Amino acid sequence: MTSADPKAATRASHDYIDHTSEVTIRMWAATYEDLLAETALAFAGLVPGHLHGESSDEWKTILLRAPDRAGVLVDLVNELVYLAEVESWVPEEVQVRRDDEASKESDVVTVSVRARGRTLSAPFVLVKAATLHAVAVQDEPHGCRGEVTLDI
Amino acid sequence: MSRKQASRAPRPRPAVSPHAARRVDQTLYEIRRDPDRGMRVPARIYADDGLWEQISSDRSLEQLVNVATLPGVARAVYAMPDAHEGYGFPVGGVAAFRLSDGIVSPGGVGYDINCGVRLLVSNRSVDDVGARLESLVHELSRSIPSGTGRGGKLVLDDGELDRVFSDGCGYLVERGMASREDLLHTESGGCLSGAEPHAVSERARNRGRGQLGTMGAGNHFVEVEYVERIVDVAAANAMGLEVGQVAILVHTGSRGLGHQICTDYVARMDRSMVEYDFSLPDRQLACAPLASDEGRAYLGAMAAAANYAWCNRQAITHLARRVFRSVLGDDADLHLAYDVAHNVAKMEEHTGEMLCVHRKGATRAFGPSHPETPAAYRDVGQPVFIPGSMGTGSWVLVGTDESSDRSFGSACHGAGRRMSRGEARRTSHGAAVKKELDARGIVVRCPSMKELAEEAPYAYKDVDSVVDVVDRAGLARRVARMAPMGVVKG
Questions:
Q1: Which of A25, A46, A64, A128 should we substitute to test contact with B (largest number of B Cβ atoms within 10 Å)?
Q2: Residue B392 near residue B415 (C-beta atoms within 8 A)
Q3: Is B413 part of the annotated catalytic residue set?
């Protein structure tokens, strides 16, 4: 686990908080885009053996559209759950770009995520889904803070 | 319901203090309907002093009160004695909604749609199994895929998936993996009507097509147990239970298919909810009017997932029967006593009104008089199974006619977690848990020591206390206590 110092929120970091039947990931980063990237890596950290497996130079592109930033956050994790379970793939390097033009036109938040990762053999993906429970994305003086709760 | 713009941000609510509840009797607490909190009905919690202390120490009460604010909620919302905080609805929560103005909420069913339990009763005794227990558990663990990925022996194409969705266990009768008697002893005959295969996304299909006949992970299990003692002889006879008789308890659900369906529809309803004239205290309560396009689509997909889960447990039964014969002889038999769902929404009639009853971590417990109680149990009531944690045994009960008024005919689904996985791992090492189980002669197969610690008995409420409250509250009646012999963990 990584211990986060909210005062130095320009450095992307995350924490895992245990609950009775789920795990909450709490993230900090300089920007919303970095926050999403950090979330992706935090999810990978929950997959045992995520540092093993065959690393690939191939980049995946994930397009996300949701009514708000928190919705995009949840959708991103759910996309990663799907990829881990069906393609045995977890992200290793993540780049996120927010499409402000598309967002302005349609009143939704539009984000493009590019990720390179590893293919694992028989990964043990305990995460069933990301939930909307207490999901939050908040701007802070030094960056951005987020929280998402995962059903385990 | 009018369609108006509404804020997506949850309306803030103060946390619910345990002092907000009054004790009604030895097994029931109530938080009265409080319009200041937006509650439309009271919240009732079945618990004794000890369980109340546990339930009121997390966010279960707050979540139950939130459910009581939902549109069209009827009579009261209930928490079972094994309740603990979830997201949106508490786990162990029961709520029913009027068809005219009520909602359906995927979070009120849960991600693992139709997670449930079935009891298979054998024609072998503990003495018959004897020294072959290790072999029996080993072969069960080899034959029934576990873990979180695919690996099922049945990989279904779209046409076959559609048959599973539409016909449930009836499809497995065609494939020689189920008998007509199995269907008679499965809730809803192993097939919930109204399934809509086209409402199931491609993603859900991709997650589910290779997982039929697999256990999954977490708290899912296949447990070999025996009848330790009988409390109700007549009900035990109806189920074919005798002291010393070996049985198998199977706990699993709809796997990734169900998880994806819940994910899909929570997202869909979260987006469509702003068009309806209500706001929610928790976004995970995302819901839609029962009569809406979203509501009907979800119910169709949920029924498809429920049917998939029944097929999953039936496929595992088929594998278990094969293992039983190979280890214990060609005449070794496992007959299905009953199969109950504990994460599902069903249309049921209660006091003359059709309601959509959401049970999240709660089972039906219909009494002898209920028309949906199977013919074999019309004299005693519908079987109810309450598993404890690994190594602590489980209980067999039967539903009561009184439960209809007390809990929409519901009882709890298990012992309920009382600590997080992380805390469980910090409490003891998996090796120590295994050593203790070994010392008691319980054979365990578990993917990892880490998971063994997470599923240790101390991580769960005491099943005997939970069942005691269920019995004294009149929700279900004790029949037999089962003791563990071996367990295969997912």
A1: A128
A2: yes
A3: yes
